[in-house]
């Protein structure tokens, strides 16, 4: 059973990489490697001095990697049992109720609302709906690492 699950996840990774690269002719192996490791190994990734073509290549691969992460999330969600799909997302009010006492104990009164706002908006309980909301919040950002860690 565990081997079957492992193979199903491997198949999802391969399929997501293939779907993200088929229309553009990019290397599915590079996207698959990113999905497995979080490392951007394509030409133009990383830091240093790059040509305009390398910057463009990085932009194209980053877009494909984000598409692949979203596809992989959906494919992996399909592997989960039905109960995982019906579990509701934890509401921000519930999260606020858990964080509020800590903030009140650590932050001076006139800054408490400010100190609560960001953690409440960016805290997700990673059940399926919470993970989906977190992915939707993180994928549009420039930092793919956060979305990769959620995935």
Quick recap:
This protein is mainly α and 151 residues long.
Give an overview in words.
- This protein has helices at residues 2-21, 28-37, 52-77, 82-86, 92-106, 112-121, 128-138, 144-150.
- By secondary structure, it is mostly helical.
- The protein has two domains: 2-86, no CATH class; 92-121, no CATH class.
Rg for CA atoms: 19 Å
Range of helix content: 55-70%
- Please state roughly what percent of the residues sit in beta strands, choosing from under 5%, 5-15%, 15-25%, 25-35%, 35-45% or over 45%: under 5%
The class by helix and strand makeup works out as: mainly alpha
Q: Supply the number of helical segments.
A: 8
Please count the beta strands (DSSP E, at least 2 residues each).
0
Shape: flat
Secondary-structure element sequence?
A: HHHHHHHH
Q: Give the integer mean of the pLDDT values.
A: 89
Taking pLDDT < 50 over at least 5 consecutive residues as the criterion, the unreliable ranges are none
User: How is the biggest beta sheet arranged?
Assistant: none
Instruction: Provide the number of structural domains.
Output: 2
Distance between the termini: 22 Å
List keywords for this structure.
151 residues; 2 domains; mainly alpha; 0% strand
What's the helix and strand layout?
Blueprint: H1 2-21, H2 28-37, H3 52-77, H4 82-86, H5 92-106, H6 112-121, H7 128-138, H8 144-150
Helix pairs in contact: 1-2, 1-3, 2-3, 5-6, 7-8
């Amino acid at each position: 059973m565990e081997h079957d699950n492992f193979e199903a996840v491997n198949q999802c990774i391969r399929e997501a990489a293939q779907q993200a690269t088929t229309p553009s002719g990019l290397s599915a192996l590079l996207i698959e490697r990113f999905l497995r490791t979080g490392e951007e190994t394509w030409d133009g990734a990383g830091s240093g001095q790059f040509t305009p073509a390398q910057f463009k290549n990085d932009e194209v691969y980053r877009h494909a990697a984000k598409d692949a992460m979203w596809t992989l999330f959906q494919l992996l969600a399909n592997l989960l049992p039905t109960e995982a799909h019906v579990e509701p997302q934890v509401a921000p009010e519930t999260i606020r109720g858990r964080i509020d006492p800590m903030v009140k104990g650590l932050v001076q009164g006139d800054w408490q609302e400010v100190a609560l706002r960001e953690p409440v908006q960016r805290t997700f309980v990673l059940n399926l709906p919470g993970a989906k909301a977190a992915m939707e919040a993180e994928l549009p950002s420039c930092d793919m690492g956060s979305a990769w860690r959620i995935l």
